[in-house]
Amino acid sequence: MTAERLDGTVAVVTGASSGIGAATAIRLAAEGATVVASARRLDRLEELVAHITADGGRAAAVECDVADGEQARGLIAGTVDEFGRLDTLVNNAGVMLLGPIVDADPEDWERMISVNVDGLLACTHAALPHLLDAAQTSSRRVADIVNLSSTAGRFPRVGSGVYNLAKVGITAFTESLRQEVTARSVRVSAVEPGAVDTELIDHLSPGALEGFWQRFDGVERLLSEDVADVIAFIVTQPRRVAINEVLLRPTDQEL
Fold first, then answer.
1. How confident is the model at residue 160, as a pLDDT?
2. pLDDT per residue over 34-53, tens digit each?
3. DSSP character at residue 226
4. Within-domain flag for 2
5. Exposed, middle or buried, 127 (CB in 10 Å: 0-12/13-18/19+)?
6. How many domains are contained in the chain?
7. What is the Cα–Cα distance from 20 to 91, expressed in whole angstroms?
8. For the whole model, what pTM was predicted?
9. DSSP assignment, residue 113?
10. CB–CB of 48/18 below 8 Å?
């Protein structure tokens, strides 16, 4: 399969202030897309955009908390208003707050659902009309949604109950939407990384962090760039090729 560049296209990447989102924004810009990088930390986004433009790419920074539906819808509407189109949506924004279900803080659950699920739904719902239009009117005749799930979307584990719930839901929603719009040339893909060396674990409680390190002791974690390469592989395929689901783990990760 020969990859196709993204010249003339516009991509939105959520959760782009660090980690997988930042690496994906850089990678898609290198493929020729104009990238709208969104997250809550505007200063980090501006640094990212400066990096992309210094390398000859095109990018814009948009401060956005996708858990706020109005902000999520504004992100998509503002992108189309400024750049006239939308071809790719990467729903990457997410939080991971692990711990036992018994005696858990329900606010942690609400935060995970609001960002990981509600944010993804709001961005997707707002983006779909524009992606469907791009798939019919652009020279590429295809558009893409890539949703970041996780190995947690495949393999439930103790201590990850609501995170599992969110990621299983994302994987299921992705497949259902794929069936609905694939005949209209919008490809919908789920990417399910295992352990990645990102800031995602920075929000864990001391007990959950200790359990994380016990589980992944001696495991060389994936880099954000590894996942970004997979996302770029998905969205640069010829129109006839749809990569529906990708599960990737560190070589040393058993489950």
1. 94
2. 999 999 999 999 999 999 99
3. H
4. no
5. buried
6. 1
7. 11
8. 0.96
9. I
10. no
- Structural domain boundaries enclosing 197: 10-247
Give the pLDDT confidence of 49-99 residue by residue, as tens digits.
999 999 999 999 999 999 999 999 999 999 999 999 999 999 999 999 999
254 lies in some domain: no
Q: Residue 233: how many CA atoms within 13 Å on its side-chain side?
A: 13
Query: Out of 115, 163, 189, 200, which one is annotated catalytic?
Result: 163
In a domain, 179, yes or no: yes
Instruction: Indicate whether 5 belongs to any domain.
Output: no
On the 0-12 / 13-18 / 19+ scale of CB atoms within 10 A, 30 is middle
Residue 236 in tokens: 């640069």
Residues pairing with 247 in the sheet: 192
**Cα 91 to Cα 16: distance, rounded to the nearest angstrom:** 10
Give the model's pLDDT for residue 168.
97
Instruction: Check if 103 is active-site.
Output: no
105 CB burial (10 A radius; 0-12, 13-18, 19+): exposed
* Spatial CA neighbour of 140 closest among 3, 1, 6: 6
Name the nearest CA neighbour of 146 among 12, 6, 240, 9.
Answer: 12
**Better-scored residue on pLDDT, 7 or 1:** 7
- The DSSP letter of residue 153 is G
Structure tokens at 83: 């750049």
CATH of the domain at 156: 3.40.50.720
Q: Output the 3-class SS for 62-80.
A: EECCCCCHHHHHHHHHHHH
pLDDT of the residue at 95: 95
Q: Which pLDDT does position 1 carry in this prediction? A: 61
Cα separation, 104 vs 147, in Å, equals: 27
Report the C-alpha gap between 251 and 5 in whole angstroms. 29
